[in-house]
Amino acid sequence: MIDLGISKMALIGAVALIVIGPEKLPRVARTVGTLLGKAQRYVADVKAEVSRSMELDELKKMRETVEGAARDVENSIQTQASDFEKSWTDATDAAMPPEFPEYKHPGKNWRLKQGAVPHWYKSRNGVRTKAQSGAARVARFRPQRMR
């Protein structure tokens, strides 16, 4: 960096006053100040961009390491699961009882079964034995008029 002390700044100001003149010096100083401000902002933007790119690289590396660890965990779980499944099938195959034939419904006639219930049992439990129309049912359960 340039080492500018107070004495060097005073020397530069005196030379500028002599070369430029006292009338144009304030305008030139303003212009130089704005140019220096723009240069400082540009340098700050470049620094921020470099730091962002460095952080992005670090995040990419971190993401790769996390993904690698996740893959390792997934692979270990899969191998353990396959080992468990193998041991489970070995254990269950050895301890399985012989297979029985599949259940087949006997195919009995449900009408015969219902007909086998005695009439006295149906009447005691309120099972209807005769079909009745809706109008007949209403007439049967209609309250009687008082005379």
UniProtKB/TrEMBL annotation:
The Tat system comprises two distinct complexes: a TatABC complex, containing multiple copies of TatA, TatB and TatC subunits, and a separate TatA complex, containing only TatA subunits. Substrates initially bind to the TatABC complex, which probably triggers association of the separate TatA complex to form the active translocon. One of its GO terms (biological process) is protein transport by the Tat complex. Belongs to the TatB family. One of its GO terms (cellular component) is TAT protein transport complex. The keyword DNA damage does not apply. InterPro entries: TatA/B/E (IPR003369), TatB (IPR018448). GO terms for molecular function: protein transmembrane transporter activity. Residues 126-147 are annotated as: Disordered. Keywords: Cell inner membrane, Cell membrane, Membrane, Protein transport, Translocation, Transmembrane, Transmembrane helix, Transport. Part of the twin-arginine translocation (Tat) system that transports large folded proteins containing a characteristic twin-arginine motif in their signal peptide across membranes. Together with TatC, TatB is part of a receptor directly interacting with Tat signal peptides. TatB may form an oligomeric binding site that transiently accommodates folded Tat precursor proteins before their translocation. This is Sec-independent protein translocase protein TatB. It is a single-pass membrane protein. It is found in: Cell membrane; Membrane. The gene is tatB. Pfam families: TatA_B_E. Its main location: membrane.
